[in-house]
Each structure stands twice: as structure tokens, then as C-alpha cells.
Design brief:
- This protein is an alpha/beta fold.
- The protein has a single domain, classed as Rossmann fold, CATH 3.40.50.2020.
- Helix content is 31%, strand content 34%.
- Strands 1, 4, 5, 6, 7, 8, 9 and 10 form an eight-stranded mixed β-sheet that branches.
- A hairpin with a 5-residue loop joins strand 5 and strand 6.
- The radius of gyration is 18 Å and the shape is globular.
- The two termini are 35 Å apart.
- It binds uracil.
């Protein structure tokens, strides 16, 4: 399933527009904060689908019965571009466990690239609800590799993927590999360049959030 939060006008579509805007992109702190708050709102939307139960709490004035979550998700992200969205999710799911994976594009002289994964730090994932953030779902190959890498640590029961911008081909690729996943995105674009950049997209999310890196 795919949920595009820009289909209806909301603050999310305003924040996605700011992420894309070359003038606003000069403000690195605003870029990170926009990623973070898109993830916060998506986190709230996801929370409406998570298991809950009625629980009584004692207030200074009496008893109250309210709905509370019965399980904590595992928040997973791909270093480094996913950090701001991960932080946004963690602001809301503040008791969640966390998983971090490093993935990067190893570029070849002919312009092609392959995805390399090097590092994983994660809790037990068997039977868990996993929320994986990655701001740009482009070809989908790093997400699919990351999910396979995570699945080696346990067979999670639900997978929510959180992106700022997703590309149509990438969505199809991910859902072919993980048909039960739900993809939540700030917006969807249709084009992708030969180098794997989304068009119109926003450029390189990691560089815009954290600065230009040396090419590997
Ligand atoms: N990663 C990015 O940062 N931008 C894209 O357009 C695609 C992948």
C-alpha cells in the first residue's frame, strides 16, 4: 500500500515544497527540520494503525480510561540521510527501540553504481513492527537491500517505510520485493535520472542536510 500525504493539501505539502526549493535549501537547519517534521506527522498517522488497548490511569482527581499503545515499534534508518526523519519519528515514538544501517552508493567509472551495506546495529526484530525511514525512495535498491539485511535479524510482522519523496519506479520495485509493506511519503515524482536522482526531486538529501561529502 502507498499513502501519499500530498494528495490532500496539508502542512506536509508546504514542507515538501520548502525541501525542494533551491532558495530555502540554503538554510540547512530548516531543511533538516522540515524532514524531521514530515516524519513527525507521518509517525502520528502510523500510530493510528498500531495496536492499542484501554488502560486505566489514576489522576489526582480519580480514575481515567484511555487508549494506549500495546507495543513499541522499532525505528530503523539508513545512515546518513535518514537521520533527520529518524529523529522526527523518535520525537513521537519516544520509547521505541532503534536500528541503524549504513548503506552507500559505490560509484563505478562507467557511471553505474551498486549499493553497499556495511554496518548494522539493531535489536531483536522477530515479530516486531518496523518503521524504516529514508528521505528519498529513488530506485528502491538500497531500501530493498536494507530490508533483506534487517530480515536476517528476525522476521518482523509489519513494515512501514517513511520517505519525504518517492519515485514511481522505486515504489513498484520495493512493493514487488515487499508486497505487505506500507509506504508513507510526502510526495511522489515520476522521473529518475540514469544516476538515480529523482526529478524534480530535491537534489541530494544527505548533502543538503549534512554538507557535501567526498565521493567514494
Ligand atoms: N537520494 C537523494 O538524496 N536524492 C535523490 O534524488 C535520490 C536519492
Amino acid at each position: 500500500m502507498v499513502i501519499n500525504l500530498s494528495e490532500q493539501h496539508s502542512l506536509i505539502s508546504n514542507w515538501v515544497s520548502e525541501l525542494r526549493d533551491v532558495e530555502v535549501q540554503n538554510n540547512r537547519m530548516r531543511f533538516r527540520r522540515n524532514l524531521e517534521r514530515i516524519a513527525e506527522v507521518i509517525g502520528y498517522e502510523i500510530s493510528r494503525k498500531l495496536p492499542w488497548e484501554n488502560r486505566e490511569v489514576t489522576t489526582p482527581m480519580g480514575m481515567s480510561s484511555g487508549k494506549v499503545m500495546t507495543e513499541q515499534p522499532v525505528l530503523a534508518t539508513i545512515l546518513r540521510a535518514g537521520l533527520a526523519m529518524h529523529n522526527g519519528l523518535l520525537n513521537y515514538f519516544d520509547k521505541a527501540d532503534n536500528a541503524f544501517i549504513s548503506a552507500y552508493r559505490k560509484h563505478h567509472p562507467d557511471g553505474s553504481f551498486e549499493i553497499r551495506l556495511e554496518y548494522i546495529s539493531c535489536p531483536e526484530l522477530d515479530g516486531r513492527i518496523v518503521i524504516l525511514s529514508d528521505p528519498m525512495l529513488a530506485t528502491g535498491s538500497s531500501l530493498v537491500k536494507t530490508i533483506e539485511f534487517l530480515k536476517a535479524e528476525g522476521d518482523f510482522k509489519e513494515l512501514h517505510i517513511v520517505c519525504a519523496i518517492a519515485c514511481t519506479v522505486g515504489i513498484e520495485y520495493v512493493l514487488r520485493a515487499q508486497p505487505k509493506a506500507t509506504i508513507w511519503c510526502g510526495d511522489i515524482d515520476d522521473e529518475i535520472t540514469a544516476k538515480g536522482y529523482i526529478v524534480p526531486g530535491l537534489g541530494d538529501a544527505g548533502d543538503l542536510a549534512y554538507g557535501v561529502k567526498l565521493q567514494n
